[in-house]
Specification:
The protein has 493 residues and is α+β, with helices and mostly antiparallel strands. It has 18 helices and 17 strands. A seven-stranded mixed beta sheet has the order 13-14-12-11-15-16-17, with helices on both faces. Strands 3-2-1-6-10-9 form a six-stranded mixed beta sheet, sandwiched between helices. It has a two-stranded antiparallel sheet with strand order 4-5. A hairpin with a 4-residue loop joins strand 2 and strand 3. Helix 11 runs antiparallel to helix 14 and helix 12 crosses helix 14. The radius of gyration is 22 Å and the shape is globular.
Length: 493
Amino acid sequence: MSMRNIVAIDLGASSGRIMLAQWTSASQRITLREVRRFANQRVRRAGYDCWDLDHLEQEIRCGLQQLDEEGIVPDSIGIDTWGVDLVLLDADGQRVGEAVSYRDARTDGQMTQAISDLGKQAIYQRTGIQFLPFNTLYQLRALHLQQPDWQAQVAHALMIPDYLHYQLTGNMNWEYTNATTTQLLNITSGEWDPDLLAWAGVDARWFGKPSAPGNTVGFWSSPRGHRIPVIAVATHDTASAVLATPLMQDDAAYLSSGTWSLMGIESLQPCLSRAALDANITNEGGAEGYRVLKNIMGLWLLQRVCSELQISDLCGLIQQAADEPACRALINPNASRFINPASMVQEIQNACAEQHMPVPQSPAALARTIFDSLALLYRQVISELGQLRAEPLRQLHVVGGGCQNPLLNQLCADACQLPVFAGPVEASTLGNVGCQLIALGELRDVADLRRCISQNFPLEKFEPLNNSAFRASQARFAALSQPAKELAYDKAD
């Protein structure tokens, strides 16, 4: 019987965790322990909205040091984070400039310019990636135009998790699943696309060859002298979350629910049709094949409302929202106005007033507006995905922190008219751990991992109810969420 100690470092756009997973091979049992949790807050530096990388690295090292002091010697360490954002290094491996966040406004107008210069369909056929105004392609173009003094010093560009790998091991790596989020990777060759790099105005030598998940980047030396392998897992947190989603049949979709909602299906082949382009569907890399999905603004709206109104009792707010009238006011969660408004409360209220809908005033009414609108958008995306695969989807698996919201789960089941299976909550962590266990030879493949997760983490099922409010509101919501009003949507040329 073997026992393994696996460390999963899981960084989201609002918080991070150091998690210790203990694996017992004989019983195929996984247990999780939170070692350290910390905030990940954007900071304003040099006029830009940035990530505090020094803070994140310090928290990671403190968590690893704590385990070392406890006498725990990990068998491996893995890191997953959000996608899109990168870190620039000079020839000596020192940071250049700031790690600017995707929510910064420096990319305004860059996507529209790319479409004008290169053609929307041509970009999509090269990359298969959804058009979002903050994709790395547009960040690099903004760098070229706005920060030439930074650019002149750059020798390497690393995605956030690969930068953290580098800080722990001294070795550089470009992990595939996160690389695909950039809209710079050619979907046919699997290499960085030279024409897109040229349009962005950056040197192709900044980027190394993308590597599949599961390789050992190097070793972290603990204070007590242990050399711990650092494994490049599926470093995009959604890729890790999908790995841990117990999809046991072909007609199941997934919804990774957190700050963002990522809804999609798995496919061995990318979907590059005109219908996929018109629906703004993305084809991100997975540990096996592609994640054909759509980015939905998600619980970012609720997080901002709670922050502005200083609401800490989220469970109480959800219970109050359940008592609010259904579908009284609706918004399009994917409208670009909600990316980073000065006030989310005011932006939601303005959007309702502009559509001559009742304006939500109370926290519960605001929350109910968000939940109903998300559920209707989930229904729309489920329909789009079913049309792309030419067969309807029969069930939906919701994972991540958002799966703990029973009201949203039930509304999702009602709106989509599908059974919803909620769990596991720690999906990105478990996918991170699972990728390490596969690399260490403890599990055979993704199917083996999912069987193991199903045994260790029971799911909660939500059956669809006959919700007349959703049926009556579908046309009204469809008018709100026309493609022209979608997040970062421009008509295909």
